[in-house]
Amino acid sequence: xxxxxxxxxxxxxxxxxxxxxxxxxxxxxxxxxxxxxxxxxxxxxxxxxxxxxxxxxxxxxxxxxxxxxxxxxxxxxxxxxxxxxxxxxxxxxxxxxxxxxxxxxxxxxxxxxxxxxxxxxxxxxxxxxxxxxxxxxxxxxxxxxxxxxxxxxxxxxxx
Length: 159
Prior knowledge:
Layout: H1 2-8, E1 12-16, H2 17-22, H3 37-56, E2 60-64, H4 72-79, E3 83-85, E4 88-90, H5 93-102, H6 111-123, E5 131-133, H7 139-151, E6 156-158
Parallel strand pairs: 1-2, 4-5
Antiparallel strand pairs: 3-6
Helix pairs in contact: 3-4, 5-6
Protein name: Shikimate kinase
Organism: Cellulomonas xylanilytica
InterPro entries: P-loop_NTPase (IPR027417)
């Protein structure tokens, strides 16, 4: 869905947040484990800084990655931006686990961790305007919903 959104915007960039975890050469900790907090902060800051630089350079920047509301202040500060748009996609836990099991070429394959992360997002305090719960299966439809919310200026967060 993020690729579709980026492709529909003028002069755009897609920043793949998961790629920043692959930059860890040795000593990486699975990011869903509690002991990965310091690592996750550094990786989130690095990814956010890259996204912020592109945005500051005039690119419509789409960040595709996990940024829970508990990490949003860290992410936002690292972008260096005064404002950003934030949208959480929250499919059912069943869909999340199915996707984790069926996707190929991705390092995140732990269904129990997917359930845990889903639970964290489901329990998080996310304003309704920033939440797309049970999004459609078709990524083009999800992109349409995201772009419509963006056009209505419903996703903005002051940093």
